[in-house]
């Protein structure tokens, strides 16, 4: 059985954009982050749910 609690649905990644730059995001599965190169931040993914708040983002 595969643990899907920490993975993000690929369809969701395709439609999500950075709330700051409005650009596409890259999913870093090993770090559990969605990365916005344009904004220079990484949004955490917690229990498979992207946390798209700039206050929660890590600066790159």
UniProtKB/TrEMBL annotation:
Q: Name one GO cellular component term.
A: cytosol
The record's listing under InterPro entries reads: Trm112-like
Annotated family? Belongs to the UPF0434 family.
Annotated protein name in UniProt: UPF0434 protein SAMN02745824_1869
Which organism's genome codes for this protein?
Answer: Parasphingorhabdus marina DSM 22363
């Amino acid at each position: 059985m595969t643990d899907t609690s920490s993975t993000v649905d690929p369809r969701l990644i395709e439609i999500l954009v950075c709330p700051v730059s409005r650009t596409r995001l890259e999913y870093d599965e090993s770090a559990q982050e969605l990365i916005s190169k344009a904004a220079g931040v990484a949004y955490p993914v917690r229990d498979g749910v992207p946390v798209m708040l700039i206050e929660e983002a890590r600066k790159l």
